[in-house]
Amino acid sequence: MHSPEVIAELKKNQAAYETLRPELEQEHWGRTVLLHDGAVAGIYNNFGDAYQIGCEKYGLGRFSLHEVGVKPIELGFQGLPVYHLLSPAD
Q1: Cβ–Cβ < 8 Å for 47, 67
Q2: SS3 33
Q3: How far apart are CA 69 and CA 16, in angstroms?
Q4: Torsional class of 8: left (φ above 0), alpha (ψ -120 to 50), beta (otherwise)
């Protein structure tokens, strides 16, 4: 189970992504968006670069990644779709 802080970060980032999704899909299809604290922190050509930069700048559990144009996986827990939630095991 993830901490309340990690869940709050994911919810903020998910809301920001959904707000910006039409623009991102039009301009950045197939790229990876790094979000932190409910805002876009960068857009990268590949997931690996975005992940590495997110880890270095914010630490695990403090950012999320969204691949533009890729539908999130629904796992059915806590009502949140899974976008690349990156955090250490709690």
Answers
A1: yes
A2: strand
A3: 15
A4: alpha
Q: Which two tokens stand for residue 32?
A: 């990876």
The answer to whether the Cα torsion of 7, 13, 19, 23 is positive or negative is: negative
Three-state SS at 79: coil
pLDDT along the chain (90 residues), means of 10: 82 94 96 96 95 93 90 55 45
How many C-alpha atoms does 39 have within 13 Å on its Cβ side?
3
d(CA 56, CA 3): 20
